[in-house]
Amino acid sequence: MKIKVECRELAQVSCDLLVVNVFAGQKKLDGATAAADKALGGMITSLLKDGEITGKLGQITLLHWSGKLKAGKIAVVGLGEQSKIDLEAVRTASAAAIKAARESKAKKVATIVHGCGCGETDPVEAAKAVVEGSVLGVYRFAGYAKDKEETEFAPAELVLFDHDRAKIGKLSRGAKLGLIIAEAENHARDLVNMPANRMTPSVFAALAKRIAKINRLKFTQLDPKKAGMELFWAVAKGSNEPPKLIALEYRGAPRSKEKIALIGKGITFDSGGISLKPSKNMDEMKSDMAGAAAVLGVMSLLSDLKPKHNVIGIIPLTENMPSGHATKPGDIVGSLSGYTVEVTNTDAEGRMILGDAITYAKKRGATKMIDIATLTGGAIVALGDAATAVMGNDQTLVDQVLAAGNRSGQKMWQLPIYDEYKESMKSQVADLKNTAGTGKAQPSTGAAFLSKFVGDTPWAHLDIAGTAFLQKSRGYLPEGATGVPVRTLIELLNG
Ligand code: BES
Ligand code: ZN
Ligand code: ZN
Question: To 5 degrees, how large is the angle CA 452–CA 334–CA 337?
Fold first, then answer.
């Protein structure tokens, strides 16, 4: 979808679908919506009076007659209550409008920039949110069917317009930002939605190498076995697919010693290994590399966004499979850090590959670390698919992550790492065991395991098991992969 920003009076806007808006309970229309109403002979006002248009957030009323306007159809989208308007409401309304455009087969869509007409939100942020909501909302995974309709319809062009020339520069800046960020998040969604036979560690690594080259990022690829990553190898050795650890490095502050490591769990399929998962919904475990996809999505943007930070993306990639070569429950293995681990459950594999990836990040000079992982079903028990669980050893960094999540509309909620959880990860026969074995507080005990490898380096851990993959679409989030938390990490680096 092409995005444009134009300075136009409503009457000059020519398109297949024109999007205007109303707030819930709004009595008197204003701005472009009032002008549209006038051109329509008061139709919007009368539908408001009838109660057909409520202004409820995301409600769409499609008008098939556009009076004197140069628009094929008009969509009136609800913004919810005026006092509650925020960027997330703008994204949700924009997604509803673009979906209506797709259903009514509108090629060219023109929209007013929700939320900035009366100065509710900053024009840069409002335009960014309109584009994010539209580009994320129109996303569909293409799939592989031979029989699908040859040209599945999608709007080709979205024009954001405003009559105020003074605003156009800011709107353009926001729209451009919104487009590159939303496209990166959609790309991450694609990688997660791809099935495990087509998104193997080798396929992922080859793609990352290409992305690194295009963006002039330093690229490293290691064989974990040769590199002494015994803990990582203990997960990988049951699979026929060769594992890989890859790193992409961006230097936005060449004179600074600071280096932020983004570490993404890249299990391209999690069968559970010898501690085999039940078969119901096991297919969803193709999404166990959502952390890896998010990190690659972020790294792919940095050369464009140019944040003044040094960032290294580190991605351990492997399958977790049962076989005659697989690690068995009870096995004791070493690690890059030197700590030994008793593997009590081979399905707690994410923390094993991350343990070595974290040690590697420190060896590469990381001064701050954020890991992103579909780590525990317990995160879904605690927070459902509404929020990502955030933990860490540095409250300042955790607070920065929570604030960035708030700005991006990707909800984050902190869980603790109490000493009790660290205690429960101690083994009788090794330095650590990989599960506490109690079934309790799994996000926190998982984080407690990781904290041993982290040591004192400031670190935040994002457990995205609940938020990375949805069974049912919601607002601008599709069924399947969501792309969480690409936008939050960008906010964090750019904010
Ligand atoms: N990949 C899973 C976690 C998961 C579950 C992600 C559901 C998304 C949806 C992870 O590797 C796992 O299996 N974790 C175990 C940990 C347990 C053995 C301590 C779990 O959640 O059961
Ligand atoms: Zn697992
Ligand atoms: Zn897993």
Answer: 45
